[in-house]
Amino acid sequence: MTSIPHLIARVRPEFARSEQDKSCHFFPLPNGGPLPETLHAYCGFSIAPGQAEALDGPAGMPCLGCLMAAALSD
Q1: How many domains does the structure of the chain reveal?
Q2: Which long-range contacts (CB under 8 A, 24 or more apart) does 37-42 make?
Q3: Residue 1, in any domain of the structure
Q4: Residue 16 to residue 4: CA distance in whole angstroms
Q5: CA 40 to CA 56: how far, in whole Å?
Q6: What pLDDT sits at residue 73?
Q7: Is residue 49 one of the residues assigned to a domain?
Q8: pLDDT tens across 43-70, in order?
Q9: Domain boundaries, position 56
Q10: Residue 44 CA: distances (Å) to CA of 2, 25, 27, 38
Q11: By the number of CB atoms within 10 A of the CB, which of 10, 19, 23, 50 ranks highest?
Q12: What is the CB neighbour count within 10 angstroms for residue 20?
């Protein structure tokens, strides 16, 4: 079984509208090809790449839905 590459990110502070925006989400990355205009997290949360703050690892409050889905995807 191959693992799915993913990006851990959250909305940059100036774009955050809610506490959910401040959570770190796990975004599966497409295999090859260009990045889409909108990234969709495992939990369904969407973010525009220019509004994302990439993280080296989970920071702050992780999204539980994303955390569970990312763990199960590997």
Answers
A1: 1
A2: 39/7, 39/9, 41/66, 42/6, 42/66, 42/69, 42/70, 42/73
A3: no
A4: 27
A5: 18
A6: 64
A7: yes
A8: 998 988 788 888 887 777 888 888 888 7
A9: 6-72
A10: 22, 10, 9, 11
A11: 10
A12: 14
